[in-house]
Amino acid sequence: MNEIEIHDIKKLVGIPDFSLYIYFTLWILGVILFFIFIFLLYKYFKYRKKDKRKHYYKTLKELDLNNSKNSAYVITKYARLLAISPRDKKLSDELIEELESFKYKKEVAPLSDEVKILFGRFMDNVDV
Questions:
Q1: Dist CA 124 CA 128 (whole Å)
Q2: C-alpha dist (Å) from residue 123 to 46, 51, 72, 84, 100
Q3: Spans of the chain, pLDDT less than 50
Q4: Whole-angstrom distance between the N-terminal and C-terminal Cα of the chain?
Q5: What is the spatial distance between Cα 53 and Cα 59, in angstroms, rounded to a whole number?
Q6: Which of 80, 82, 106, 125 is the residue whose CA sits 20 to 30 A from 58?
Q7: Is residue 79 a contact partner of residue 92, using CB atoms and an 8 Å limit?
Q8: Residues 32, 36, 37, 40, Cα dihedral to 10°
């Protein structure tokens, strides 16, 4: 009875195990993706586009109105860039038209009160 050989059951077969390699590969890929994410986040915050309208508004707000010729050129440049709505454009056109007398000359008079009032009205109207 002990000598009966069973042919239906086969011997154990070795199965290759790659789970350790897969585990380390996933860890390495995870670390690489983490560093790529950190790098992209750093680049985004470092080089994100600054709001130019705020810069233009700040430049006009800090403008020295005592230097009338330079003020006329700076106001003309930035008023055109800031004017978006029809009301802003109308006010900037009026202001630029008044500033024409202060440009293209060697000697200019100080800015008149009317120009300063127009400039103040324009600055109050602009939304940044």
A1: 10
A2: 30, 17, 15, 13, 19
A3: none
A4: 99
A5: 10
A6: 106
A7: yes
A8: 180
Tokens in use for 62? 């800090």
Place of tokens 């100080």: 110
Residue located via tokens 């350790």: 20
Choose among 68, 67, 94: nearest CA to 83.
94
Contact 127, 91 (CB under 8 A): no
Surface-to-core class of residue 75, CB atoms within 10 Å of its CB (0-12 exposed, 13-18 middle, 19+ buried): buried
pTM value is 0.62
| Residue carrying structure tokens 């056109």 | 93
- Asked if 91 and 121 touch (Cβ cutoff 8 Å), the reply is yes
The answer to whether the Cα torsion of 55, 61, 67, 71 is positive or negative is positive
| Contact yes or no for 58/109 (Cβ under 8 A) | no
At a CB cut-off of 8 Å and minimum separation 6, what does 40 contact? none
Helix (H) or strand (E) holding 36: helix 19-47
Question: Helix, strand or coil for residue 15?
Answer: coil
